[in-house]
Amino acid sequence: MIVSELALRNWAKLPPRAQIISDLTMLGLEVDGVEPVAGEFNNVVVGEVVECKQHPNADKLRVTKVNVGEEQLLDIVCGAPNCRQGLKVCVAKVGAVLPGDFKIKAAELRGEPSNGMLCSYSELGINIEADGIVELPADAPVGTDVRSYLQLDDVVVEIGLTANRADCLSQLGVARDLGAKYLVPTKFADFKAKLFAQAAQRVTHNEVFPVELVDDKACPAYASRIIKGVDVKARTPEWMVQYLARVGVRSIDPIVDITNYVLHDLGHPMHAFDKANLQEKIVVRPAQQDEEIVLLSGETAKLQSNTLVIADTKGPIALAGIFGGEHSGVNENTTDIVLEAAHFAPLAIVNRARQYGLHTDASHRYERGVDPQMLLVAMERATELVLEICGGSAGPVNLVGQLPDNSHTITLAHNLLEQIAGIGYSQAQVVDILSALGCQVQAHDNQTYTVTTPSWRFDLEIPEDLVEEVIRVHGYENIPTAAPEAKLSMRQFREADLPLNRVKDVLVNRDFQEVVTYSFVEPKLQALFHPGEATLDLPNPISVEMSQMRLSLFTNLYSTLAYNQKRQQKRVRIFEAGLTFVPNADAELGVSQELVLAGLVAGETVPQGWNHTSQPVDFYHVKGIVEDLLAITATEVRFAPAQIAGFHPGQTAEILHQGQRIGLIGKVHPALAKPYGVSGDAYMFALDAQAIALTHVPEAKPVSKFPSNKRDIALIVNENVLVGDLIATARKAGSELLTDVHLFDLFRGEPLAQGTKSVALTLTISADDRTLDDAETNAEMTRVVSALAQEFGAVLREI
How confident is the model at residue 799 (pLDDT cuts 50, 70, 90)? Predict the structure, then answer.
C-alpha cells in the first residue's frame, strides 16, 4: 500500500513528517520505504509560451519566447513535440540545478540563443509517464515556483499491511488510524455532509439503468447511475495526475482516472460502462461454466461457475469485483456512461482473480473487505468529479439490494485490558481511543464497556481485538520494559509415562526410517483405504492431490513406498507419528484429531548378504515388530482376525485392549498396488499413540535359587482356535507357579482329522522358595489342560 503525505494531510491535521513515519510503524502499519515525489531541483518556475516557431536550422527543434513573469521574455530552444504557443510549462531558468546535478546555462543551439530549458516530468525527477514537456493547467500563475505550485515537497510512503487491515487500503483509512493516534478527527464527516447536501443538485434527468441481483448473498447491494453527454477526451486535471502518480497509478483517461482516484482516496472500487454497449439490463449472477469474456487487457477468460459476473442480457460484461470487459468499457467514442459501485461479500471474490491469473486493486480490496457504508459516498464523489471534469448530466442513483451492517457489538472488561497490557488505563483513555477509531463506546460503572465497531473495521470481533487496538494506539513504546521472571517448577512426570520418542527408538533400532508427510491427501487414493467414510474436504486446496484431510496415515505411507520404489529402493521400512482428522459432530469444531503411530514394511526382512538367504517380509515378521513395540508398554493386547478395507482379508488382524481396538496390522490388498503405483507386497500397522502411553514401572524381584521345571503338552484343537487365546487362557488358569507359556510347534495334516491342528506349548513351572516335586508340577499342568479343554475343547495329543 502506497500513501502520500500530502493526501494524508488532506484528511487530517497531522504532526511533522518524521513523527508520522515513526508512528505508522508503531501503529502496526510497517513502513517499508519513504521516497520523495520529485528530485532535488531549484529555480524552476511556471512559464507561458508566448511564441513558438520552427528552428531555422533544425527540423525537430522549435524556437520559443517564454514569459516567466520578468520584464524580458526568455528565448529558449525546445525539442519537445508538444511545445506550442499559449502552453503553460515548467521553465528551468539559467542557474537552475536539476536532479543529477544538471546545471542550466545560457547556450546557443544551432545558431539560436537558449536561456533556459522547458522541462519534462523525468527531468524534474517526477515518476509520471508522458511524452514531451509538462503541460500545466491554463490557470497556472506565471512566475510561481514549480515545486510550490505542484506541491512537490511531498513523500510517498510504502506500507506493509497485514491481511486483516483492509480498512487501511486507502488514504482516508491510513489518515483515520493516524487521527486516532493523535486524537484528532478526520475531515470525512464534513466532507460527506457537504457531498450529500449537494447530491440533489447533480441530478438533472430521471433515467436509470435496470439492475437485477440474482445472487444477493454474493452481492448484497449494487448502485448505478447514468451520466449523459460526458467528454471522455477532456484532460485529467494536473492535481489528479500528480495524485495518481504518487500512489503508483498511471493516468489513462479522465473516467478511469476518476474511478482510480476514488478507489485510492476513499477505498471503494468503482467501474464505468459505456451505456451504448449495454443490452437491456445489468444482471449480477454466477457465471455459466465455460462462459467467455474478453477482458479490458484483451485476454479472453473462460469462466468457471464459482465466479460472480456483471452481465447484461447478451452475456458477461465484467468479472465482479475483479476486472472489466473490453466490449462494455469506456472508449474514445463514449458519450453516455453507467457508473457502478457495488458491495461484494469477501468470500464471493477471494481467490477468484487468482483462478484467471489476475490481481487487481479492486480484487485486492474486495477479498479483504470493503466498507459497505462507503458505497454511496464513492458514487457521489465520482459523480461530482465526472461532472466537474467531463461535463454531462447525471441521473438518480439506482440502489438495488440493501447495504449490510457489518458492525459488531462487543463487551470489553477493563480488567481484561489491563491484564493483557500489563499497565493501567483510565476509563477516559479507553473511551477516547476507541471513539477516535470510529467506535461507539458506552462505559459502565462495573468497569465494562459496550463497544459498537465501525463499518470499516472487519477485523474487530472479540474483546481481545479491542484490547489490541487500545494498546496499539496508546503506543507499544509506552508499555514499560520489565525483566522476565523465571518461575521454575518441577514438571509433573509419572514413572509410568512412556515418551513417544522411546517408542520410536524401538523402530529405529529395527532399521526403520521416520518420515513426515502432509496432512492432506488425494481423495481417490484415500477412498481405497476408507471407502464410503465421511471426510473433511478443504474449501481452497493447494491442488486436487491435496484436497482432503487424512483419515489415517496409510494413504501417505503407501504413497511414500511408491515414491521410493520408483527410485530403486526395494527394501523399505518407514514409520510416521502424526494426527488423523475424522469428522465427528460431537468433537470440537466437528473433527476428531487423534495422534497415531503407523509403519510400513516391504521387501526383504534383512538386507541381502553373503552369509544368509534373503527372505521376503511376511505377516509374522511385522507382527513381531509390533510385539517389540508393545513389550515396552504396559498395554496388554491380543490380536484378532479382522476384515478391514484396503487390507488382505486373510492376513489382517486388529489389536485389541480390553475389548477396544487400539490398532491394526495387515497386508495391503494387492488390488491397491496398481492405483498407487506399488510393486510387490507391503505390510502396514497402526497404533493409537494414547493407548501405548504407559510403560511398566520396574519392580525388583529376587531371582529364584531353585531350578524350574519345563513340561511340554500337545493339544488337538479346531483350526479356528487362535494360538494367542490358548496361551492367554493357559496363563490365566495357572497359579503363581506357572511363570511362562510359549508355543514351540504347530502341526496340521495326517493323522489329524481335517479341520483340526496340533498346538504344542511349553510350560515353565517354578517356585522362589523351594524345588517343586513332580506332584506339584503335574497338578499345575492338570489345571492348565483342564482349563483349555473346558474353554476350547482341547484334547491331549497321544499320537
Answer: low
Please give the share of the chain, as a percent, with pLDDT higher than 70: 100
- 563 in helix, strand or coil? helix
Name beta bridge partners: 427. none
pLDDT category of residue 56 using cuts at 50, 70 and 90 = confident
Q: How far apart are the first and last CA of the chain?
A: 92
Closest residue by Cα to residue 683 from 577, 596, 572, 579? 572
Mean of pLDDT over the chain: 92
More confident residue, 111 or 682: 682
- 459 annotated binding-site participant: yes
Helices assigned H by DSSP within 671-773: 673-676, 723-733
Best CA proximity match to 693, nearest among 521, 494, 546? 494
26-45 pLDDT, tens digit per residue, is: 999 999 999 999 999 999 99
Tally of CB atoms within 10 A around 125: 16
Burial class for 193, CB neighbours closer than 10 Å (0-12, 13-18, 19+): exposed
Q: Which residue has the cell 461530482?
A: 384
CB 675 within 8 A of CB 528: yes
pLDDT at position 26: 92
469 assigned binding-site residue: yes
Tell me, rounded to whole angstroms, the distance of Cα 314 from its chain centroid: 36
pLDDT band of 564, cuts 50, 70, 90: very high
Assigned C-alpha cell, 797:
495329543
- Can you give the pLDDT at residue 122? 93
Contacts of residue 595, Cβ cutoff 8 Å, sequence gap at least 6: 500, 577, 578, 579, 688, 689, 690
Is 586 among the annotated ligand-binding positions? no
DSSP codes, 393-457 = EE---EEEE-------EEEEEHHHHHHHHSS---HHHHHHHHHHTT-EEEE-TTSEEEEE--TT-
Cell (9 digits) for 488: 521454575
Q: Per the annotation, does 465 bind a ligand?
A: yes
pLDDT tens per residue across span 245-293: 999 999 999 999 999 999 999 999 999 999 999 999 999 999 999 899 9
Lowest mean pLDDT among 451-460, 472-481, 482-491: 482-491
DSSP 492: P
Q: Where does the pLDDT of residue 375 fall: very low under 50, low under 70, confident under 90, or very high at 90 and above?
A: very high
Cα 764 to the chain's mean position, in Å?
Answer: 64
Amino acid identity for residue 113 in this structure? P
One-letter amino acid identity for 77?
Answer: V
As given in the structure block, the three cell numbers for residue 544 are 486436487
Catalogue all structural domains in the chain, each as residue range(s) with its CATH number. Answer: 2-37+156-185 (3.30.56.10), 42-153 (2.40.50.140), 190-401 (3.50.40.10), 412-477 (3.30.56.10), 500-688 (3.30.930.10), 709-796 (3.30.70.380)
The alpha helices in 170-322, defined as continuous H runs, are: 171-182, 188-197, 199-202, 238-246, 254-266
